[in-house]
Amino acid sequence: MFKPLLTTLILLIFSVIMFSCNKEEEEYNYLIKTLEPITNPDGSIQLRGKLMVDGSKRQVGFEIHNLTNIGNTINITSKLDESGTFNTNFIDFNDLGEKFVFRAYYIDKFGNKGLGQAKEFTSIIDMKVIINESSIPDSIFIADTINITGKNLQKNAIKVTYGYETKDYNFYTYTISRSFDTLKIHYPAIHTNIGEFLVFRIQSHQDILFEKKIKLKYPTFIKYNEKGGYSGKDFTICGNNFINDLENTYFLNNRKREYAKKITSDSIRFTLPYDFYELNDSMTIYNGNYTFKTPPLKQLPPEISIERVDIESELYTVKVNFENIRRSDFEGYFNEYKAVRVRETDNSVTYKLPLISFPSTKVNFNIRRIYSNKELLLEQEVDISTPFNISSTEEVPFRGEHQVCNYLGEAYLAVRRDENLYLYMYNDSDKEWVEVSEYPYSISSQFTSYTRFMVDSILYIYLGDGNIISYNFSTNSWSQVAKVDLNPINMQPLFFVYNENLYVGANNKILKFDLINKQWKDDTSNLDFLPINNTRLNKVFLKGDKIYQYRKSDQNKYVLLVSDFLEKKTIEIPLENNYSSIHTIPFIYQDRIYIAIRSFNLVEEILYFDLTTEKFYTDFSIWRQLYPFNQLFFKNNEGLHLYIGKRSDRTAYTILKK
Description:
5% of the residues lie in helices and 53% in strands. It is mainly β. The protein has 5 domains: 24-122, Immunoglobulin-like, CATH 2.60.40; 130-217, Sandwich (Immunoglobulin-like), CATH 2.60.40.10; 220-294, Immunoglobulin-like, CATH 2.60.40; 303-386, Immunoglobulin-like, CATH 2.60.40.10; 389-432 and 486-657, Neuraminidase (6 Propeller). The strands form 14 sheets. The chain has a 5-stranded mixed sheet with strand order 9-16-15-11-12, with no helix packed on it. Strands 50, 51, 52, 53 and 54 form a 5-stranded antiparallel sheet that branches. A 4-stranded antiparallel sheet has the order 4-3-6-7. Strand 15 (197-204) and strand 16 form a beta hairpin.
C-alpha cells in the first residue's frame, strides 16, 4: 500500500524539479544568448555572447567544457561593448580535433548566475604547449628576470608556480607576462633567506608540464673598494650577485638613507651624505628585495693648507687647498666675518679678503666645517697688504646718496637739512667733512630730493620744486639761475649742462635753458635719443660728448646707458652679473666710472667701467656686516676716496686708494 504511494511521491518531486529547471533555463535564455563561435585565421576560436538587458551591473563571460579530454570547467571573463555583445579568443586546447562545448553567462549584482544555450566547436590546429628547457637557467639571482621560450605559451591556462625548499613545498603563482613564444617572470624569488634552492614549475590547468630545482644566488659583500670616505665622497661596495635595481638599492646608517648611483653584478656605488663623519656601526644595505650588512667605513681626516695669493693687482686673496673634504662642507672666515669665494676647483677654494673691516696689517683666517656647529678645522694668521688706507670718523654729516664735485683738487659736497642747504669740503689733515658755506635763502622742505651738476668753477643744483641755483667757487657766491615748470613736478629729472646750455628732462620731454640768453626752449625732438623715463636720474654724468646713466632694464638687470650727442644714439652695456641695487652715484676717476653695487648674496661690490676698454671690472668687496647706509666716491689731491657710513654704530670709514 505504501510502496505505490512512495513511488508516486518521488515522481511528483522529480517533475517539480524538472519544471523548475526548464523554467529557469527559459528565463536565463531570455536574458543571455550564446552566439555561434567564429574560427580566427590563426586557429583560435572567438567565443561570442549577447546580453539582452542592461549590463551595467552584470559580469559576463564564458563557461567551457572539454568533451574530448574530460576535465575541470574553464571560466573566462569578458567585457561588454555598447551593443551588449561580448567575445573572447579561446586558445586553451592542445591537439587537433578536440571538441568543446561553451555557454555565455552573466552574474548579476546579487551573485546569481545565468547561462545561455550551449554551443560546440572543434579545434582545427595543434596548440600543444612546448617548453624550451634550455631557456630555464640552473641558477638565478633572487631578484632577476627569467625569459622562458617555447611554443603556444600565450594560453591562459598556463601558469608558473614556485615553491621553496621546505618540507611541504607550498607553491605560489607568479605574475607573468606572456606572448606566443615567451613567458617573462620578474623577481622569481619573492622572499629572502628561504634556502639554497627554488622549486620551479610550469603547468597547464592541473597538468605539470615542467619542473626544475634552481639554485638561488644571494647578494654578498666582499670588501670596500676604498680605505675610507668623507662627506660627499663616492665609495664602492664589492661583492657578488648584486641586483641592478637603482630605485630599491640604498644604505641606512644612523637612520640616514642614501641611494645607489651605479650597480653592476659585482659592485654598488654610493655617495656618502653631507653630514658623514664616521660610520662606526655597520651599514644596512638594501639591494632590490634583499638586505645585508657591511662593516663600518672609516672616515678619512681632512687635509687643509692655506696660502696667500694675488689673482689681480688690486684684489688680495687667500687660497685654501684641501683633500678628503668636500668644498661645500667648509667655509672660510676672516676673524668673525664669513669670506666670499671667488674661485673654485676640485681641490682648492680662493677667498677675498675683507679690505675695510680690518685696519690692522694681520688678520686671523680660519676654515670651519659647516655641518658640525662650525667646527674649527684650521686656523692661520695672514698678512694684509691692502691697496687702501683706512681711516674712520665719528661725525656723519649726511645720509643717503650724494654727488661730489671737485674744485682746485679739493672735494666738495652739497648737503640739505630741512629748509637749509650747506656746502662741505673734505679736510685731508683731519679726515673729516667741514662746512664752508650756506645757501642764504630758505628752500622748500616739501621736496627733499635735488640734483647737481658741476661745470668748470660753477656748481648747478636743481631743487625738487623746480628752482635751479648755482654756487661759484671762484667768487664764493650763490645765485638763482632759473625756474623750470614741470607738470607734474619731478624731483629727480634728467639734469646736466652741455655747450653753454642747461638741460632738464622729465615727463617725456626735454627742456633746454640757454645760460647766456637766459631763455627756455623745448628740445625734445632734437634729443629724442636720450632715455628720460623710469630711471634714477641723479646717477647721470657727462664726459666729453657722451652722457652716462645707470638703470634697470626690462629684464630687471642693471645696464649702463651711453648716449652720444654727436651720433645721436644710445647703446646699452649690461653688467655681467645680477645685482639688487646701486648704492652710489657713478664717479669718474682716471677714465674709470666707479660705482658701489650690492649683489644678491648681500656683498657690496665696487665696480668700475673702463672707458678705454668699455668693460666692467671688480675692484674690491665690502662686507655686508658693515650695514652701510650711505656711500659716495670723491677725489682730492690725495687720490680717490670711498666714504661709507656704518649703520650699526653711526660711524664712517674713508678709504683712500693708493
